[in-house]
Each structure stands twice: as C-alpha cells, then as structure tokens.
Design brief:
A hairpin with a 6-residue loop joins strand 9 and strand 10. Helix 5 runs parallel beside helix 9. About 35% of the residues lie in helices and about 20% in strands. The chain starts with 15 loop residues before the first helix and ends with a helix. The strands form three sheets. The protein has an eight-stranded mixed sheet with strand order 1-5-6-11-10-9-7-8. A five-stranded mixed sheet has the order 13-12-14-15-16, with helices on both faces. The protein is an alpha+beta fold. It contains 15 helices and 16 strands. It has two domains: about 240 residues, Bira Bifunctional Protein, Domain 2 (BirA Bifunctional Protein, domain 2, 2-Layer Sandwich); about 90 residues, 3-Layer(aba) Sandwich (Rossmann fold).
C-alpha cells in the first residue's frame, strides 16, 4: 500500500462539507466587502520568495519546498499566498484598475515543518489582500472582515493582538537599539539569532527558541521608536476598532515572520487547541510590490489556515450546519422499472432537485437502506401499479408519511 506523505491529509467526503461551509462563508463576506477572487499557481520562481519574504526568515531558511525543474530553473511550492498575489499584480498590470483593489484567495501552501494540530506540510489558506489604500481605514476593514468571518464561523475563544513595526525610516533606530540589546545578551541567544543580529535584528523578536523568547521579553519596544506618522496610523486604527466594538490589545512582541511587513501587524490567537497559537495573521506591507519590480503600492491583508479553523470550531463544540444530502432517491420495486427510475432522476436533476437511484440491482428493501444511508429526504417508488397509473409513491423517510403523486406533478411536489 502507498501511504499519504507525512504532513498531508485527505479531506474525505464525510468531512468535506465542513470545508465547503467555511469557504461559502468566506465568499459571502468577501462579496459584502466588495472583495473579488484571485487565483495564483501552486508554484513560483524561487526568486519571488527570496526577494519578498527575506533570506533570513525561517520560511526561506528552513521551510520552503524548493527544487530544480527539468529546465534547470529553481522552483518553489508557494509557502504563503501574499507574494504570489504581488507578482500577479505587477505582471498583469493590475495597477491600471481602479484602486483600491480588494482581492481574496483560497490556496494550498507548503512548508516543511514539524506537523502539529492544524499545521500540516500542505495546508490551505483563506487570504485577503487590499492594494492601493494607505489609510488606516483599510487596516481596519481587513481586520473587521477577519473578525466577522471568525465570529460568524463560531470561533469565539479568540484574542486580537495588534502592533506597529514602523516604516523603514523609523525602524532604523529601533534596529540599532535591538542590535545593541542583542549583543549585550548574545551568550543567551541561539546561533541563528547571532546571524539575525547582523542581517535583520527585528527577526530575533520572532525566534521560537525558548531561551531567546526569555531574552527578548525584556528587549526595547518598537512602539518607543516609531515615527509620528506611524504612531498616528496606529492610534487611528485603535480608534476605529474601539468604535466598532472589536476588542483588542496592543502586543509589542508581534512582528510576524516575514520581512515584507510595515506599520500594522496583527494576530488573532487562541489557546483552545492547547498552547496559544495564531488562527489568523496579517498586517500592512507597503513596500512589497516594489520588492518584486512594481511601483510603490500600499497593501494590507491577512491569511488564515482552514485546517486549523475547522479543528478549532470542533474543539469549541461549535456545530456545523448539517450536511446537505440528496432530496430524492428513486426506488424500483423490481429490475424492470430501473430505467423508469433513471428517467425520473434525470428529470428531477434538470429541474434543480437533487436525486439519485441505485444501479447495482439491490432488492427493494436494500434500496430503502441505501437511501437512508445516503441521507435522502424522500424515496420515490416506481412499481407496476405506479407505472400503469403514471404516478410514483413518495415516502418521507423522517416520519414514514406516504402519498401518491403524478409523475407530471413531481417537480412541483418537491419544490
């Protein structure tokens, strides 16, 4: 037997309706927010992620699935959805559209990391990207959309944490302060953080090593270094969140794991699955489009993993809507009426009514059992008397209620 690769998961028919409900809700909310769908390939040129995410991030250094294709090109399965959208925006000249341009996506993403609850080597993200809006009102809209989705999906055990990591100008002073702090505590930091102190000191804040976490807990706060413009942006966002009744707290330890972030960063976190983990993360990345060859374009967005969302909903005992199954199962009293059942099913389907029938030669009793297992709401029985009179016997499986209905009126009966 060939087994599934470690860190991947099959979504079986008995579970897929949960995904469909999550995706349907996301599409519904995106329509309300005037957000349109974009789809990008599952793999990109490796250079895209090196230029946008950052060479010294864990994603690039440890987690990317990178290989050489038959043409000798370095290709990477996408580890996140934002950089491919930026590439598409530039390559397809989407700046020529009326801005701001609001986009969403569902996408598989691939990271080579230790599999854990809701964190697989292939997982699926729902992401939102707003392009061309520099005002904090767009940060608020993105956070508001994520909040509305999580609440409507039944995820209530959440905390929203926000921070500002400043712009490239004010971050220079902070990086110097952080570098000085790191050098003073270098003996307590891991080897990777030693390198980060030289290349990008901000990355030590995001280190997952427990000893490093203990050190950076006492590091200087970025909020003491941000410029007046970044501070005003942050204050306006806080005002908007407060007015909307979206609870939050400021956490200066949030920097996110990718280099393209500027100003606002945020996370929705929960401990419902054990240790506190991020359910949704995002922020502003005003210099991303420039890093992949485009014009300066302010951007803000988020991403959330669908696997983790579904696990969290189940852990919170938040019920899914019942799976929608077929409306009608056509049943033949004997094999000679099988073609009549097939014709009946085809007519019902043409009229938008879900229907099915058995074509394996089961007995009448077995067909009823099959209908019940398939979750059919009704069975429509065709036998000798029904054939002669142009009717079907309709039985509602929930309570056994039975009545005769003319075949010509059957569509109206089920509508």
């Amino acid at each position: 037997m060939i087994s599934i690769p470690r860190g991947t998961k099959d979504v079986l028919p008995s579970e897929s309706y949960k995904w469909q409900q999550a995706e349907a809700l996301a599409r519904e909310l995106c329509a309300l927010y005037n957000v349109r769908e974009i789809r990008t390939p599952a793999f990109e040129h490796t250079e895209l992620f090196l230029r946008s995410i950052g060479d010294d991030t864990d994603v690039v250094g440890k987690e990317m699935y990178t290989f050489e294709d038959k043409g000798g090109r370095s290709i990477t399965l996408k580890p996140e959805g934002t950089a491919p959208v930026a590439r598409s925006y530039v390559e397809n000249s989407l700046e020529s559209e009326t801005l701001p341009l609001k986009m969403f996506y569902f996408s598989p993403v691939f990271r080579y990391e230790r599999p854990a609850a809701g964190r697989l080597r292939e997982h699926h993200q729902f992401g939102v990207e707003f392009y061309g809006g520099a005002a904090p009102e767009y940060d608020f809209e993105v956070i508001s959309l994520a909040y509305d989705f999580l609440v409507k999906f039944g995820i209530t055990s959440l905390s929203l944490n926000i921070n500002s990591i400043g712009c490239p100008n004010c971050r220079k002073a902070y990086n110097e302060a952080l570098k000085a702090f790191g050098e003073a505590h270098k003996a307590e930091l891991c080897e990777t953080c030693h390198t980060r102190l030289k290349t990008n000191p901000l990355r030590i804040i995001d280190c997952k090593v427990s000893s490093c976490k203990a050190v950076v807990a006492n590091a200087p706060s970025i909020l003491d270094y941000i410029c007046d413009d970044c501070a005003a942006h942050m204050e306006r966002l806080k005002t908007l969140l407060t007015a909307a009744g979206i609870p939050f707290k400021v956490d200066s330890g949030i920097v996110r794991g990718l280099d393209y972030y500027t100003k606002t960063v945020f996370e929705f976190v929960t401990d419902a699955l054990g240790a506190q983990g991020t359910v949704c993360g995002g922020g502003r990345y005003d210099n991303l489009v420039e890093s992949v060859g485009g014009k300066h374009t302010p951007c803000v967005g988020f991403g959330m993993g669908l696997e983790r969302l579904i696990l969290l909903k189940e852990a919170l005992n938040s019920p899914f809507a019942p799976e929608k199954r077929i409306k009608v199962m056509a049943v033949s009293q004997s094999p000679e009426f099988a073609d009549d059942c097939t014709a009946l099913v085809r007519d019902l389907r043409k009229n938008g009514i879900s229907a099915d029938c058995d074509n394996t030669g089961r007995s009448l009793k077995a067909q009823f059992k099959f209908a019940d297992k398939q979750g059919a709401e009704y069975v429509a029985v065709i036998g000798e008397s029904e054939k002669a009179s142009g009717t079907v016997t309709v039985k509602r499986l929930s309570d056994g209620q039975t009545e005769s209905c003319a075949i010509s009126s059957l569509v109206d009966f089920f509508e």
